[in-house]
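Hello Y.,

Per our agreement to keep a running log of every chain we model this quarter, I'm adding this entry. I've kept the format consistent with earlier entries: sequence first, then predicted structure.
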Amino acid sequence: MTAGDDVDTRLRLAMFAHLDRISAAYPSGIPSDVINTFEFDGEAVRLVVQPGIRKPARLSAALTIRTTYTPQGGARPYEDEFGTDGTLHYKWRGTDPAHPDNRALREAMVRRSPLAYFYPMAKGVYHAIYPVYLVEEDPARHEFAVDLGELEHSVEGIEVLPERRYARRLTLQRLHQVVFRPKVLRAYEARCALCRLGHAPLLDAAHILPDRHRRGEPVVPNGLAMCKIHHAAYDANIIGIRPDRVVEVREDILTEIDGPMLRHGLQEMHGSTIFLPRSRHDRPDPTRLEERYEQFRSAA
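Predicted structure for the entry above:
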């Protein structure tokens, strides 16, 4: 291992540790200024940069890539897209194969270097997906294929990372699952839709219709931010949510006598109205709520 390899390895490991910390602290999306608080060997290292491809001067291969946020209906500056095999088709910088950014991406591909990919949640807010790998280049389309597969890796060293299973791919559905929780928590301002609990580590993104359902897509209108107690109760048909967004508690639970958790956490939810996202596009789909409510009624 050369001195340069050692710096490259140490920097990437330090970056992943940094992203572990801030991802836990910002589960609904990390602001770019927080991402860029990263320091290595006493020096600030920006991870999110305007062109989208980041290669620090100390490295020969790219370190991070990002996709630019585009509002609904807006024109994307680069046509990054996801293939049905789960790979991200990430565009070159321009059309010159010798552009320094494109050479840095190519070097990361040849070296099988792990990168971080920043998926846009909002303007200046990202969900970090890592490690990812550049696995193929298509010069005719001016793009690289990026493997977003989740891989086993050692926290003690990057040496095991090149032994990844190339055949493993995320489907487009899998990618949506990865960002489902941060999108739902962001829509609900990191609060439980039932009790308004605002502690993100205690919150889940609950599906209205489950994954196995034909309309159970991991999209925000099929999601509800719920604390873990209410999520479990919803999945167990202890509580239901009507299409008009009013909460019902199963009758036998309403008459049960137990401690304060049952009384305040469940029984007092009966007849309340759920907390809604500000954006109408993010609010729960009434048709999905209706179908799920009928399941609750049948179970009750």
